[in-house]
Design goal:
Elements lengths: L1 H14 L3 H4 L4 H7 L1 H6 L1 E5 L13 H4 L6 H5 L7 H11 L3 E7 L25 H11 L3 E7 L21 H8 L4 H17 L6 E5 L11 H4 L1 H11 L4 E2 L27 E2 L2 E2 L3 E5 L16 H13 L3 E6 L9 H17 L19 E6 L4 E6 L6 E4 L6 E6 L8 E2 L6 H4 L6 E4 L10 E7 L1
Parallel strand pairs: 1-2, 1-9, 2-3, 3-4, 4-5, 8-9
Antiparallel strand pairs: 6-7, 10-11, 11-16, 12-15, 13-16, 14-15
Bound molecules: alpha-D-glucopyranose (GLC).
């Protein structure tokens, strides 16, 4: 009878979702844990691996169904100087960086006890992650690891529909997966994530990528043992900030922020009617890994707009660089980082610590608004510089002082005079800013408004 009772209790306990243990934080505590990240707004993503050698997409192994290991034997980034990378990130105005410790190809940029498929066994021979972490920290940047849940090298990772060896038939899957054991692979993930979160000091962010549970031959939370994996992550690094790709969206504490990839959100993303922390990850051009012949590079103006627009909707931008196989940032990435940095020197007050503007400040045409709640200042970004005048509808009585942010020069403003209202239907609650006709030499002009 007693044994029966004990068994019943054990069965009952095992049905309690582990999720209960994933978070015992209040919303205020979560906000506090994430505060530095929310304030930072701008980070660097780095996708680096063996795929830098073919230089034609980080999914090249899948696209071309590559099985040989020629790139592993060639990998030797002789010009890798992480301090230079860190400086470029910092000078661009970025406050944190996230690097691929392992991408889908399965190759590890760190020295892991659990595989031979790692950088220390290439001609390069040294742990890249260790040097990277030290250099980025030395520049005062927060550091994060991307870790691919997918693995196209591990012998126990079952062939799924994204795998380079995905077959055409069910029979094919059965045959190929006969001797593969996801239980062992799950253990491998835990072992490696544990290494990453114990051997490199304090890690600020972890980016676990990704889940594709729907449809056939996908993978999700059961395949990764997501709940136990995340419980371990939080235990090892209680302050860490975690992305949302573990397939735990419905689990309390199963993610910290959402990750719209390669598109601009139309508004601040919500879940259950509440605005949630978010970060858009974006590339300079079409792929994440270095892609020599890809030519769709975004212009500096587009990139700045992306950053400002993200902040104007309460989010962050994680902008990706795909270094070359020699360990350098491509010149096109360097050029863009420089332009962004030059803009940030003068205008970062409209980015750091800023968020979406309060509702009672309607967005003027061709502008983006950001707002610093601590200083109570509002920032009007002029995407198209207007000629002479800018009308701010609904701002009347709410503004104390106005200036250009880049040179702190005063901008005079006033109420519309009655005799011109017939043309523009201006109201008492509008104000008009008087701007110089010639656009100052700044990529995107920002007007700083001290609010009443
Ligand atoms: C996707 C892609 C991957 C890239 C990532 C960045 O998951 O598979 O190549 O690393 O997005 O968010």
């Amino acid at each position: 009878m007693r044994i029966l009772k004990a068994i019943t209790i054990i069965i009952f306990l095992s049905t309690i979702p582990l999720s209960a243990q994933l978070s015992n934080e209040t919303p205020a505590q979560k906000e506090e844990r994430m505060q530095w990240w929310t304030d930072a707004r701008f980070g660097m993503f780095i996708h680096w691996g063996l795929y830098a050698l073919p230089a034609r997409h980080e999914w090249v192994k899948r696209h071309e169904r590559i099985t040989n290991e020629k790139y592993f034997k060639l990998f030797n980034p002789d010009l890798f100087t992480p301090r230079d990378w860190a400086k470029m990130a910092k000078n661009a105005g970025m406050k944190y960086a996230v690097i691929t410790s392992k991408h889908h190809e399965g190759f590890c940029l760190f020295d892991s006890k659990f595989t031979d498929y790692k950088v220390v066994n290439t001609p390069y021979g040294k742990d890249l992650i260790k040097q990277w972490v030290d250099a980025f920290r030395a520049e005062g940047l927060k550091v994060g690891f991307y870790y691919s849940l997918l693995d196209w090298h591990h012998p126990d990772y079952t062939i799924d529909r994204n795998h380079p060896q995905s077959p055409a038939t069910e029979e094919g899957y059965k045959r190929l997966n006969k001797n593969r054991d996801m239980k062992k692979y799950r253990k491998y993930i835990k072992n490696q994530v544990k290494e990453l979160l114990t051997n490199y000091g304090k890690i600020d962010i972890i980016w676990l990528d990704y889940s594709f549970p729907s449809g056939s031959h996908g993978k999700g939370r059961i395949d990764w043992d997501s709940e136990n994996l995340l419980a371990m992550v939080r235990k090892l690094q209680p302050e860490i900030i975690v992305n949302d790709r573990l397939d735990l969206l419905d689990v309390e504490g199963g993610w910290d922020f959402t990750t719209p990839e390669q598109y601009k959100v139309s508004q601040w993303p919500e879940r259950d009617g509440k605005q949630i922390p978010w970060e858009t990850c974006q590339t300079f051009s079409g792929s994440w890994g270095y892609y020599r012949d890809e030519m769709t590079w975004k212009s500096p103006h587009q990139l700045l707009e992306l950053l400002i627009e993200s902040v104007s909707k309460g989010g962050n931008l994680l902008l990706n660089v795909g270094p070359t196989a020699r360990g350098m940032f491509d010149y096109r990435a360097q050029e863009r980082l420089k332009v962004m940095g030059d803009w940030m020197i003068l205008n970062n007050c409209s980015i750091y610590n800023c968020t979406q503007a309060p509702e009672n400040f309607p967005k003027p045409d061709n502008c983006l608004l950001t707002y610093n709640p601590k200083t109570n200042r509002l920032y009007v970004h002029l995407l198209n510089y207007p000629m002479g005048r800018l009308t701010l509808k609904g701002f009347g009585g709410k503004v104390q002082y106005a200036q250009f942010l880049h040179d702190a020069s005063e901008i005079k403003f006033g109420k519309p005079r009655r005799n011109i209202t017939h043309q523009e239907k201006m109201q008492e609650e509008d104000i008009i800013l008087l701007l110089p006709v010639v656009k100052p030499k700044v990529e995107i002009i920002v007007i700083e408004l001290y609010l009443e």
